[in-house]
Specification:
Blueprint (H helix, E strand, L loop, with lengths): L7 E11 L9 E8 L2 E11 L3 E5 L5 E6 L3 E11 L4 H8 L3 E3 L8 E4 L11 E9 L12 E14 L11 E7 L13 E2 L7 E2 L12 E5 L11 E3 L3
Antiparallel strand pairs: 1-2, 1-9, 2-15, 3-6, 4-5, 6-11, 7-8, 9-10, 10-11, 10-14, 12-13
């Protein structure tokens, strides 16, 4: 069995998907958003402190020396974006949208940070990274590093600065386990048949999974301003 290794650089694309309170994708008219306007996504694993038990004997020598296994609690995420997309903010934080009075369909023109709603959103986060120095696959496809955080919640606003310079928005959140992502609602890989066909994940995300990574030759999703409909097969 061959192993696929990759050197990665640059963030190519980001996708957000609305989840329900149990971590399952929500089918709806504005449930998914693809954007390339992220500056960075920083992931920091958060571990429960190990429990250590030690006991010296009467001679001062170690009699008992035991340490518990590391326990991963969640993964802290810091997300920085360089576009003010109200529907992206709504998917990340749950904050309400502001619309205008256009008829017959109002336009989404802004958002509000609402004490009762901010931080209530549940979403999945996918990131595609570039792979350096690669040769095209046998089918002429480009490979990408595909990172999936199947359940992200508890988002909080970070600071933003009005200045003679770029305005970027920062959010922190937690990637947790026990999602109901399954194999996902998207075609994110090419199978091993010839010719290759686009497929969802080969195996479903299980209760212990915080992150999924693989090298994929599936094409990048197309970015757009605002969220679009998600139809779950």
């Amino acid at each position: 069995m061959a192993t696929v290794c990759a050197t990665q650089s640059r963030g190519k694309m980001m996708r957000l998907t609305l989840l329900d309170e149990c971590g399952a994708p929500v089918e709806g008219p504005a449930s998914t958003l693809v954007s390339k306007s992220f500056v960075s996504v920083t992931a920091t694993p958060n571990y429960l402190d190990a429990e250590e038990i030690s006991q010296a004997d009467a001679n001062g020598d170690i009699c008992i020396d035991d340490r518990s296994d590391p326990a991963l609690r969640w993964i802290d995420l810091s997300i920085i974006v360089c576009v003010t997309d109200p529907q992206m903010i709504n998917l990340i934080t749950g904050d309400p949208l502001v619309v205008d009075d256009a008829t017959p369909t109002p336009n989404t023109v802004g958002f509000r940070i609402n004490a009762a709603l901010t931080g209530t959103a549940n979403f999945a986060l996918e990131i595609w990274s570039g792979i350096t120095g690669q040769a095209c696959t046998a089918g002429g496809f480009t490979n990408y590093g595909y990172w999936l955080y199947p359940w992200v919640k508890d988002a909080q606003w970070g600071e933003w600065v009005h200045q003679n310079g770029a305005l970027v928005l920062t959010f922190t959140a937690r990637a947790v386990n026990e999602s109901q992502w399954g194999v996902g609602p998207y075609m994110v890989r090419r199978d091993a048949t010839v010719p290759a066909t686009l497929e969802p994940l080969l195996s479903p995300i299980d209760d212990d999974d915080f992150v999924h990574f693989e090298v994929t030759a599936a094409p990048l999703p197309t970015p757009a301003c605002g969220a679009v409909a998600l139809v779950i097969p």
